Amino acid sequence: MIHHVSVGTNDLPRSRAFYDAVLAVLGLRLLNGSAESADYGVGAFLFSVETPVDGKAATAGNRVHLAFAAGRRAMVDQFYQTALVHGGRDAGAPGLRPRYDANFYGAFVLDPDGNKIEAVTYSAK
Predict the structure, then answer these.
(1) Are 42 and 29 in contact (CB under 8 A)?
(2) CA 100, 105, 111 angle in degrees (round to 5)?
């Protein structure tokens, strides 16, 4: 079982502005913030964005992406729009992707550092 997932950033204030807005759509909130990281979750943190411990530049993983669960399709749509407004870039507009499942509805964006994130639901609504 995964405890949490972290992605790197080269500009934590910019990433916080992005993730504070985008993750709120999915019900996650900032639980802990410092000069090195921002940790999001509900009761315990599940996701964090951090400056690299080794002091080198953060780079996005090739073919790596993180998927966040959304309760309904409207949340996926809002996630996508909020991400674009806060510095994210399109990586796959909201829509059905029946090759995964008849009700797989998702959207993909790149965060300001190029990390690919997704919101997905299997809800028919």
Answers:
(1) yes
(2) 105
- The length of the chain, given as a count of residues: 125
What is the C-alpha separation between 106 and 103, in angstroms, rounded? Answer: 10
14-40 pLDDT tens trace: 999 999 999 999 999 999 999 999 999
pTM above 0.85, yes or no: yes
Q: Set out the domains of the chain in order of their start, with CATH numbers.
A: 5-52+65-121 (3.10.180.10)
Query: What span, in angstroms and rounded, lies between the C-alpha atoms of 24 and 36?
Result: 21
Q: Hey, what are 113's tokens?
A: 């550092």
CA separation for the pair 32, 10 (Å, rounded): 18
The rounded radius of gyration (Å) of the Cα atoms in the chain is 14
